[in-house]
RNA sequence: GGUCCGUUCGUCUAGGGGUUAGGACAGUAGAUUUUCAUUCUACCAACAGGGGUUCGAUUCCCCUACGGACUACCA
């Protein structure tokens, strides 16, 4: 085969918010496309009108963009193979189903839902291990294989409801080579006569997927392992449609599992375990109660996209070196489908958090300041860019998320209303209060102060009071911030400014019990 | 039930016929720090079980167990 352009696609269904596993699938597609100099397509698979959820498509676009996954061609971008939404491609599929019928690889089936249920019930009663519409049972059903030709024609002409099913051969080994798993072999007897065209005239996933991948000249299909069982069916479809020579290469990704126990990571696990399973926050409605629900998102929880991407990339893949921190560009350079593992991975909250802390600390103060400024804005507090940068500068080593800045740095903007009890009871006494008063009075009035200067002054003042700095430091922190812990105290004082510090010291001395 | 896929520290994983089975996260301990955090150092901890093949198997093969996916006119 000649060198083919690499074209991969991410093809989600707009049935709700994009799951974090879907994000990883999209990411691997993207990495492979970029690595091999190919194209990344986005196709919306909305052939099931019943499951369509408004806003889901926009969500998918926004989530991918937030992660830095760039779509070269497809929904929201356009391109030469449009439209990229299957509902808009509806008229294109019928001819392929007709072709399959003409070639004897598919047939019309007129069975009602009740008849299908009855068939399954009958087979179940007869202890048939796997009740399905297949090469054996189709002989008992109402379809164009069993009905006389003129009756079929009459039904069709009379507008009877029908579906088109694939005529899967009785005995045949279907095999294909999976890029991750090697040869996968399935006997055709295990595959049922899948519906290709539904009675509403829409194709099912299987037909639409194969037709679109072929028409869009997809070279690699990278998708979740849940598709592995139907891959042989897809191979059959390519073959019967006469497209086997350009059939894409398959790669089925291992699943993402719940952090605890086992099983596929699901929407509910996030709520249960307290971490997001969606990239962005999602406002939906409960399917049963109809109540409005909010699902947490990584973005809103304060995760940086580069941290999420780095973490996700390593869930099921690794470069074979000891390096763990990778930018998107580095991932592209290092990625290879051969190094994707076969076994499923459990989602590890600690590891994502660690990645987030890493990327947070790697950011400049100027990049981080907006997060604090945003929170301040919400609390109607005015603050200069410069001061915000100073604060995030001393704070970024001690927080996990940008959202923590406000909570941790509150006291820079609000004088403490209460003081840490443990420190007060242990470290606060009349002598300390007096020493702090002395320090407050000794504080320079000049606007230019340095942490070093304040520290020296503190040490000198304490010496004059006959106290060791260590005896008073904690009390000073509590008096000024109310908290028992925080960044370097004298840096904190500098940011606060002398007038504010003086004021807070006076308040503390007046408020706190001078006993003991 | 059937078909298919999988199984190395608690977690993500490297490795691979002969290794002290390596790293990271988490955990623990210590150092640093005025405090907490950071940082640094150390420690803890794994080849699911049973059969083969082999001089030798965690690595190759088979079986078992366990886990998972699929089994719709859903994707």
TL;DR of this structure?
This protein is mostly helical and 516 residues long.
Radius of gyration: 32 Å
Give the low-confidence spans: none
- Total beta strand runs: 14
**Straight-line distance between termini:** 89 Å
How helix-rich are the residues, as a percent range? 40-55%
Strand content: 5-15%
- Main-sheet strand order equals 1-2-3
Sheet of most strands? 3 strands, parallel
In the CATH hierarchy, the third-tier topology of the domain at 89-206 is known as Glutamyl-tRNA Synthetase, domain 3
The CATH class assignment of the domain at 89-206 is Alpha Beta
Per CATH, the architecture of the domain at 89-206 is: Alpha-Beta Complex
Q: Give me the secondary-structure category.
A: mainly alpha
> What is the global morphology?
elongated
Mean pLDDT, all residues = 92
Assigned CATH superfamily of the domain at 89-206: Glutamyl-tRNA Synthetase, Domain 3
Give me the number of helical elements.
20
């Amino acid at each position: 085969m000649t060198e083919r352009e690499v074209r991969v696609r991410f093809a989600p269904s707009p049935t709700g918010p994009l799951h974090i596993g879907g994000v990883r699938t999209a990411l691997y597609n993207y990495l492979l496309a970029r690595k091999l100099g190919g194209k990344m397509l986005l196709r919306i698979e909305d052939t099931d009108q019943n499951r369509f959820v408004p806003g889901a498509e926009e969500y998918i676009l926004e989530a991918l963009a937030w992660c830095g996954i760039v779509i070269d061609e497809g929904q929201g971008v356009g391109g030469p193979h449009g439209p990229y939404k299957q509902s808009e491609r509806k008229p294109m599929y019928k001819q392929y189903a007709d072709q399959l019928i003409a070639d004897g690889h598919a047939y019309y089936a007129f069975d009602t839902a009740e008849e299908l249920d009855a068939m399954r019930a009958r087979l179940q009663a007869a202890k048939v291990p796997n009740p399905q519409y297949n090469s054996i049972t189709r002989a008992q059903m109402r379809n164009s294989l069993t009905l006389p030709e003129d009756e079929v024609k009459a039904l069709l002409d009379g507008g009877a409801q029908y579906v088109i099913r694939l005529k899967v051969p009785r005995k045949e080994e279907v095999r294909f080579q999976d890029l991750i798993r090697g040869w996968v072999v399935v006997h055709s007897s295990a595959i049922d006569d899948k519906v290709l065209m539904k009675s509403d005239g829409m194709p099912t996933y299987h037909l639409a997927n194969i037709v679109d991948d072929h028409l869009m000249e997809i070279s690699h299909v990278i998708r979740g392992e849940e598709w592995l069982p139907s891959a042989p069916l897809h191979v059959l479809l390519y073959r019967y449609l006469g497209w086997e020579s350009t059939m894409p290469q398959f790669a089925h990704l291992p699943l993402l599992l719940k952090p605890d126990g086992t099983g596929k990571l699901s929407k509910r696990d996030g709520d249960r375990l307290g971490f997001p399973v969606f990239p962005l926050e999602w406002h939906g409605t409960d399917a049963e109660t109809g109540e409005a629900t909010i699902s947490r998102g990584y973005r809103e929880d304060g995760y940086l996209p580069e941290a999420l991407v780095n973490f996700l990339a390593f869930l099921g893949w690794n470069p074979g070196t000891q390096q763990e921190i990778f930018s998107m560009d580095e991932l592209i350079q290092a990625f290879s489908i051969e190094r994707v593992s076969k076994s499923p991975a459990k989602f590890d909250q600690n590891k994502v958090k660690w990645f987030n802390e890493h990327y947070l600390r790697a950011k400049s103060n100027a990049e981080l300041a907006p997060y604090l400024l945003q929170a301040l804005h919400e609390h109607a507090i005015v603050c200069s860019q410069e001061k915000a940068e100073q604060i995030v500068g001393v704070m970024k080593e001690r927080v996990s998320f940008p959202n923590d800045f406000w909570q941790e740095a509150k006291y820079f903007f609000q004088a403490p209303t209460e003081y840490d009890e443990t420190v007060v009871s242990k470290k606060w006494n009349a002598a300390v209060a007096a020493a702090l008063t002395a320090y407050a009075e000794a504080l320079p009035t000049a606007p230019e102060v340095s942490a070093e200067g304040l520290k020296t002054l503190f040490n000198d003042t304490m010496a004059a009071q006959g106290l060791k700095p260590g005896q008073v430091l904690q009390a000073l922190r509590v008096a000024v911030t109310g908290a028992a812990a925080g960044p370097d105290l004298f840096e904190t004082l500098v940011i606060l400014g002398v007038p504010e510090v003086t004021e807070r010291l006076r308040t503390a001395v007046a408020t706190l019990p001078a006993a003991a």
